[in-house]
Specification:
Number of domains: 2
Structural class: alpha/beta
Number of helices: 7
Strand content: 15-25%
Shape: elongated
CATH class of the largest domain: Alpha Beta
CATH architecture of the largest domain: 2-Layer Sandwich
Largest sheet: 7 strands, mixed
Helix content: 40-55%
Distance between the termini: 33 Å
Strand order of the largest sheet: 1-7-6-5-2-3-4
CATH superfamily of the largest domain: Endonuclease Chain A
Number of strands: 7
Length: 184
């Protein structure tokens, strides 16, 4: 028998129940190796990366999607809204001596945005020499391996087979293996 008991594996169209729980866990790290990842999971990883260190290995097939999803939009917000509004407010103040709180609102927004902006801690490794086909998801004490890509369809609709490794020592072995892949 491949698995000691049925809790060690899952086969079906709801592998997200296990993978999402692993991603959202309170661990300090999240290591992921998958050839395909979509915007749904990239947003989830971005949110989680404020709380933990995330390392993602993927293939060239997902490179553009990953770079677009992880692009920082705060800079764009600053350029399109706060800076022009600040210039307009200062112009009104200097030309017609219109002094109001509107002069300081953009500055307040900028300060709040700077205070709340936390850099996500996602490190991405795109392996271009070969096609990465492994699907590995690891946190501090659990690892999941199997056929499920980190896409909404792959985890919510496709029938996939995954193995859940809940042993901390085995999860550490998988982490060591992931680190070797990272060096590839």
């Amino acid at each position: 028998m491949l698995f000691r008991d049925k809790r060690d594996w899952y086969s079906g169209d709801s592998s997200f129940k296990y993978i999402d729980r692993l991603i959202r866990s309170r661990s300090d790290k999240l290591l992921i190796c998958t050839p395909y990842i979509d915007r749904y999971y990239l947003k989830m990883l971005k949110r989680e990366s404020y709380k933990k260190r995330v390392m993602l290995i993927s293939s060239k097939a997902s490179e553009q999607k990953i770079s677009e999803a992880l692009r920082d939009r705060r800079r764009l917000y600053l350029i399109l809204f706060i800076i022009p509004y600040s210039i307009l407010s200062l112009y009104l103040y200097t030309t017609i001596r219109l002094f109001s709180y509107y002069v300081f609102i953009p500055i307040l927004f900028a300060v709040i945005a700077a205070a709340l902006s936390r850099n996500n801690r996602i490190r991405v490794k795109i392996i271009k020499k070969s096609f990465v086909h492994e699907k590995i998801y690891i946190n501090d004490d659990t690892a999941i391996v199997g056929s499920a890509n980190l896409t909404f369809v792959g985890t919510h609709k496709n029938i996939e087979h995954i193995r859940i490794i809940s042993d901390r020592a085995k999860a550490n072995e998988m982490s060591d293996y992931f680190n070797k892949l990272w060096q590839y």
